[in-house]
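Example S7 (structure tokens).
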């Protein structure tokens, strides 16, 4: 009987140790671990309404990230990005809207349809809710809120300040995936626009932008530093 009990104890102890090792190996993250670090990347953006090409601009910022449990976490980011579009043509404008008239209403010339080059600088706050189906891989949803700090439109090498024609804030719903490789965090995500670019009170904004919105793709690399 003692031998049987001893054998059962050995088997139970081995099973418990093996199960504990399995859980440790498959634990993705400890709850409330906190990571902080810088990010750098590229933003590829384009504007609806305009027949333009994607503009590639820098993204520079920082993030803080934590975990609720093994499979869920969240992060907050603050960054700078340059967005807009290039080689864009305002084909939505009619000939009448492009006409330049004299004091008597006679058409003396027409404005050009393009090509325009839009540069818009943002300070963004980004919120992400993450799910980890695998150890290093995560998918996320969230929001991106940007504030314009500068906005110009270039035509024929002439820059025009259009900050007053734009909404002060821009909002996007974001979705994408990330991969954690040791101390590096690699992410790719799409920003779906939920706000128009133009200032509804600006006649210039209406004439130049109509209902244009901004599509944005982000590819970033972050360096993870554990602080708690």
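Recovered sequence:
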């Amino acid at each position: 009987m003692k031998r049987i009990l001893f054998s059962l104890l050995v088997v139970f102890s081995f099973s418990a140790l093996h199960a504990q090792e399995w859980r440790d190996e498959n634990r993705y993250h400890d709850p409330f671990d906190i990571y902080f670090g810088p990010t750098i990347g590229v933003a590829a953006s384009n504007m609806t309404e305009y027949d333009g090409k994607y503009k590639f601009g820098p993204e520079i910022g920082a993030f803080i990230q934590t975990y609720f449990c093994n499979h869920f976490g969240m992060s907050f980011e603050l960054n700078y990005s340059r967005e807009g579009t290039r080689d864009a043509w305002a084909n939505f404008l009619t000939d009448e809207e492009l006409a330049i008239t004299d004091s008597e209403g006679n058409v003396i010339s027409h404005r050009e349809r393009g090509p325009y080059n839009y540069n818009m600088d943002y300070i963004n706050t980004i919120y992400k809710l993450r799910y980890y189906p695998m150890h290093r891989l995560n998918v996320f949803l969230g929001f991106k809120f940007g504030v314009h700090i500068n906005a110009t439109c270039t035509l024929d090498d002439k820059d025009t300040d259009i900050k007053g024609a734009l909404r002060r804030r821009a909002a996007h719903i974001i979705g994408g995936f990330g991969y954690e490789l040791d101390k590096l965090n690699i992410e790719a995500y799409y920003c779906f626009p939920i706000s128009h670019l133009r200032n509804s009170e600006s006649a210039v904004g209406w004439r130049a932008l109509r209902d244009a919105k901004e599509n944005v793709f982000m590819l970033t690399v972050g360096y993870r530093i554990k602080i708690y």
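Notes on this example. Confidence is low (pLDDT under 50) at residues 1-24.
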